[in-house]
Structures are given as C-alpha cells and as structure tokens.
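Prompt: I keep going back and forth on a fold encoding question. Comparing notes only helps if you start from a blank page. Show me how you would write down a chain together with its backbone fold. Please set it down just below, with no commentary around it:
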Amino acid sequence: MRERGPTLRYAVNERPPLLITAGLGLQNALFVISGAIFLPILMRSLDIVTTEQAAFLVSATLLTAGLSTAIQAMRLGRVGSGFMLFMGTSGAFFAATMDAIELAGIGFVAALALIAAPTEWLIAHYFRVLRTIFTPTVGGVVVMSVAVLVVPIALDQWQGTFVEGKEGSSEFLLIGAVSAIVMIAMIVWAPPRYRLWSPILGLAAGSLTALATGDWHFTQTSEAAIVGFPIGEWETPTFPLTGEAFAVLGAFVIATLAGTFETVGDAIAVQRVSQRDFRRIDYESVRGSLNADAVGNALAGIMCTTPNTTYSSPTGMIPVIGVGSRWVALYGGALMVVMAFFPVLTGFVLDLPLAAIGAVTFVTMLLLFVMGLQLAVSGGINGRTTLIIGVAFWGGFAAQNGLFFIDKIPQALEPIAGNSISASSVLAVLLTALFRITPRKRFRWRGQADAEELPGLLKFAQQAAESMRLQVRAANQLELCLEEVFTHLSEQGDADRTLRIELSPDDSVVEVMVTDRSEARDVEMPDLPPDLVQAESDELRDLGLVLLNEMASHVNHTTISDWHYISFEISKSSDLAPPPATVDL
C-alpha cells in the first residue's frame, strides 16, 4: 500500500475558512491554557497565594498569552515571527515565581519580568553575531527536550497522579486509552480534511468516556463567575534591595535565557513545517520572535504575572493537521483574551478530564520529538553535531530526572540543573560555541567587490588549496565556486564595499563562508529561462549559480540585518560533492 506523506493544506500566509481557523485556534489554545493556568492553581493549592490572587493570575496570564500570541503572528515591523507560534507561561519560571511571591508578593514578580524582558531583546539585537551558535542543531535539541519535560507530566495526568484516590485507576487508564486511540486513528487513517481535528476529537472522546465513568466533574465551571477580571489584585512592581531578591533575579534571568533558547528552537522549527517550498531559515523571523517574546515579558510585568515563552505543542501538530496558517494563532490569541474576561470558560478548561488531556498531550509530544530530531540533523551529521545532540539531549534528560550528582550542584544553578529545556539548551549552546572557538586552521581573504580583485582571489584560492593539500579536482572546484560567488556579488551593489571570505578545512570537506553587505540576490535560487538555447544573455546571468549549486554541497544564503552570509562545502575527494547527509524519518 502506498504511504501518504504529510501535506500542507494551508501555508503560513494562507487564510483557511472561518470554521477551520476558529476551530484550530481553539484546539491549539487548549494546549496553551492548560499549561498557562497550572502555576496559579498550583500556588493556590500550596497556600502561596489567596483565591483572589490565583483568579487574578489566571486572568492576567491568559490576557498576556493571548496578546503575545497575536503579536507573534502579526509581525509588526521587527517584532513578531509572522508564524503560528502560541505563547504561554514557561515551566522554567515556576520555581523562581513561587520564590518571588513568597519573598515580596506579586509586585516582585512584575518587577522581575520587566527587568528580565530586555534580555531577549539584546539577544535579538546581536543575533547576527550569535548566528553560528543558534543553529538548527541547537534548535532541534531544544525542541526534543520539550518532550522530555512534558511527557512525564502528561503520563502523570493520564494515570491520575494529580487526582486523589485515582492514581493508577482502571477508569483513568480507559479514559486516556480512548483519547490516544482516537487521536492516533485519526492521524493514520482519516483523510487530510478530517485529520486536522485529531487532537480535539481525541480529547472529546476521552471526555465522553470520563462522563460515562463518572470522572468528569464540573466543579470549577459551576463555581466560576460568568464575567469578571479581578483587577483589584494588581500590585505596583516592587524590588526589595536584599540579597535574597537578587538571588531570585538571577534565577529569573536564567529562566529567561532558557525561554530564549526554546523560542529560537520553535521559531526555526515552525518555519520548516509551515511553508510548502521551504528553502532556508529566515533569521529575521527568528529575531522577530525574540523581540515579540521580549514584548510579551514586558506585558507580563505590566500585568503582574509570569513571563511567557513559545509553546511547542501546536508546532508539533502542523505536519499532521496540515495547517500552518498564522491566522490560526490570531484566532487562538483572541480566544485566550476573551477567556481572560470569562472565568466560567477557564473553569470549563480546568474541569476537562486530566487523563484525556494527558493522553492527547503524550501523543503530541511523540510527534514533536520526531520533528525536533529531524530539525537537529537537517544540516547533516558529522562528529560535532553527533556530540552536540547526544550530550545535550541526554544531559537534559539526566537533569530533568535528577540522575547525575544532583546534590553536588550549587543551588544558584537549580533553574538549569532541574529542567531538561534549560540544561539541554545550555549544553548545546556551550558545545557549539566551544567548537566555534576551538583553534583550527583557517584561511581568510578580504577585498573590494570589484572585478579587478578577482585575480587576487583566485591566487588566494590556489595557495589555500596547496596548503590544505587538496586534490586537483577539489582545488578546481573551490576556485570555480569562489569565482562564481564573487562574480555574482561584484555585479550588485557598491564596488567599494568589502567582501570577506573564510575557508575552514575539516576532515572531509572545506567549509566556505562569504560575508557581504549589499542587496545581492539569493544564490540558492538561480533564475533561469525555460529555453536556454534561445535565451538572451541577460537571462543567463544566474547560470554560474547553477554550477555553484552542482559542485558544492550545503549551499546556504542567510540574510540578517542586511548582512549576507553565503556558506557552502567543497568535498576534499576527487568526486563531485555528495548530497547533504540527512536522516529521513
């Protein structure tokens, strides 16, 4: 039987029918809402906050998450990714938020959010410098680590760990099993037009099963007010000048960095699954997502609630449901804003059977893990990427489960050591940075983008090839590729500008990086006429770029803040460069 591959019915800029847009907005918002309101409910159960304060935090969190989600989708100038990225409270902030409220109240949380917000803005501002650190490999590891963090929680929900007297009960096993089976059946056998409803149908099937077993209660719904927003609990941002306060601030900044890494991973991942003809990562969109995250954190500070970060669950479902439209995020964000003023709707979400929620989340995390793995290996596998993926992922797993000398880790590092996303992110970034700064032989050339500089460039290429002891054919390929790139760039923009070229030999390839600042056309997408024989000379101007893409591998043209970074690899063997080494999952 022929296997059906995933199809994208609605890409990022396409607007689905209203029913699909609103329905998927609701479906994805449910993933966010259940996590976003978890912290206020937890703090109320531990008597850290009052009932009124918990109600305020729930409403403020939903309002902030909805507005932040809409900002991400709209991409206002340099703020927002322009993709379907849902925002919500990050688990990395849980411990620091509870410490802050116990120390100085909700107003302290507001001050911490406002202080930590510029962290992501600074990273976005200097993203051009950090582009070699925040790679798809790092992003993929972060996405995989989200599954490591969420799967145990989802399984605990499924087996009734959070419900007194129901842990391991047969009823919860049945409820979760029905949800998971219905969702998986929809994913595997349903036509694409119905497959997009697989999560909400799985949740509905589990909820009806819970109703039949007597395990779906409407306690929160019956007690909640229909309309209201407890604004009276809002507090002025305050920061006590004590040693404990600065310690909590340090934990908040670390948690913000963890959220930053997660946002970068999600912003990279969502691009790959939301476009039909994905070519490469748009790092301007990644910068926009970080700026939107910073705005969301500032909104959280103003609203006296916990900062937000992107949620990976909706992104993981895009390849399955076939809808990556940013309009879904706009409707989902609007729904969360509406729910902030209707506590009865929030109460209904709180009353949904945990076993059904846990089972649906579990299946979603499995899909997300595979998507993260695909992203991590998308640039090919070599010794460095293998080490980064292995160490960072399993390091995060060990940190999340307290498996490695947990009593030897300083308390100040607890936000990293006790969270899979934080630990994996830090390990992946540190290893990537280490490989970047490790001394290795490099050959550098700089000159003006003037045709008269070409002979000097070719001489540099010949000398570098001799020094690297390249075979004749590999040396010729290197010279031809550099010539084509130089010719392409020199024909565009100011001839007085400076071009920079760096050659970095590896075990089997020579990595080439060309840096330019101009309005150069994309080298990955040559523009050729259908009939080469009868084409005019002007129509054949990109013929050399075809040659470049044939002789070199991993050709990539990235633009960040008007800077162009053109990279490719030349095989050291005498054969033509092999195709990119990727894993097809």
In short: DSSP finds 23 helices and seven strands in the chain. Residues 73 and 511 are 35 Å apart (CA to CA). The chain has two domains: 18-234+242-436, 443-520+540-571. Residues 18-234+242-436 form one domain.
